[in-house]
Amino acid sequence: MNRRPPGGDTGEPSAGDLVKQAAEQLSDLVRGEMRLAQAELARKGKRAGLGGGLFGGAGVVAFVAFQALVAAGIAALALVLPVWAAALIGAAALFAFAGILAALGRKQTREAAPLMPEEAISGMKADAERIKERAHR
Predict the structure, then answer these.
(1) Which residues cross the membrane (predicted)?
(2) What is the pTM of this model?
(3) Which of the four, 36, 69, 115, 124, has the lowest number of CB atoms within 10 Å?
(4) How is the chain split into domains, by residue range?
């Protein structure tokens, strides 16, 4: 029989020691994973920031290119019309385009109103009612 000597140490850790050791190892593992995730997110954040900056730069260059295209269109119209008339037509076309975009934006904004998350609020109210009902039982 494998009996433990009374008051003696068998050299094997007790169940309590094993649980404590497992909890410490799990805690260390979670901390290590959190540090790894933090470092990974920092790297990805730097790349995302750089990518966003490059997209912003591309947007600025595209805007300048659009301005050059408008100027070219006005210059082409100036071949058959006076320069002032060509510029006036170009400005009118741009204002019409801006008006269309503004109307579409207004429509989308009105469809989004109100800005409160109504479905989530109604779901939370329903959950609260269910909890109250169960608490009264």
Answers:
(1) 53-77, 83-104
(2) 0.52
(3) 115
(4) 15-77, 82-137
